[in-house]
Amino acid sequence: VSTGRLRAHPRSWGLNPVLRPTAAMLLAAAPEQGVAHLLDEQGQVVRSFKDCRPGPRGLCTARAAVVSAEASRSFTHVWAGGKEQPQYRCQAPERLGPILATSDAAHVVGGAVSGKLYLWQLSTGRLLLAWNGHFRGVTALATVAADGYLVTAGEDAILHVWSFASLLSAAASDAAPPPRALRTWTAHTLSVTDVAVAECGPHSLIASASLDQSLRVWRLADGVRRCLHRVEASAPLTAAAIDPAHRALYAGTSEGRLLRSPLLHEPAAGAAAGGGGGGGGG
């Protein structure tokens, strides 16, 4: 599922935009039916995208386009121009898992089951760079600090942070050395299943959920390997979210439960309700 406000920028591709929304919309896929739907705030279908069969985190938006990585084949589909069928397809060297598009819709990043990472130019579908990112399959991707950095997570229980400038520099030269991660965090003991970002420039927070039943928080600016905050759950975690104001963490478990943990001190109910003086006994 991909959520958020979509904006039309037809000049990005020289194409007509998929839509011109004026409110937040939800993009959701039904892979078994081979279709994705764009829903408005009332749950009504605004547009459908056929031949769409993504795996987990294999669907994203790129301004006015929709991008999907097929779960069973090594194809990436791009919908633009207001059509139900893909505008074009590009084939990856191997089957992809998660994908994401940069906020300027210039590039798409995909993580593969082998642990490799791939960088494409969205407007042409041209593969710019492939590099070894993880020892096992890539499970989650995110961008942070206005697309300045790429966060990747894998079944190897590792999180990496890559400078996007260094990735583009490596893509521009055949003689460039392989990209090196700017940050590497290894506190998890089992597969990292999801990452979430709360933007604040170099102080942006990154939350990671794991099958080791922990939710951890890292700060982009910190070079240390120790996490800032840790929450232990009673079941493996499969999804993570973080309040944009850095107030709370959220996680979904393999049992279907939703967990919330405060990041900042929350006053007691009596103090929060209160006006005036006394402190609340109790």
From TrEMBL:
Gene3D superfamilies in the record: YVTN repeat-like/Quinoprotein amine dehydrogenase
Q: Can you say where the WD repeats lie in this chain?
A: 131-166, 185-220
Offer one Pfam family short name for this entry.
Answer: WD40
GO biological process terms on file: DNA-templated DNA replication; rRNA processing
List the record's Gene Ontology CC terms alphabetically.
nuclear pre-replicative complex; rixosome complex
Q: Name the source's superkingdom.
A: Eukaryota
Please name the InterPro entries in this protein's record.
WD40/YVTN_repeat-like_dom_sf, WD40_repeat_dom_sf, WD40_rpt, WDR18/Ipi3/RID3
The UniProt keywords, alphabetically, are: Repeat, WD repeat
Its name, as the record gives it, is Uncharacterized protein
Q: Which organism is it from?
A: Emiliania huxleyi
Lineage in the entry?
Eukaryota, Haptista, Haptophyta, Prymnesiophyceae, Isochrysidales
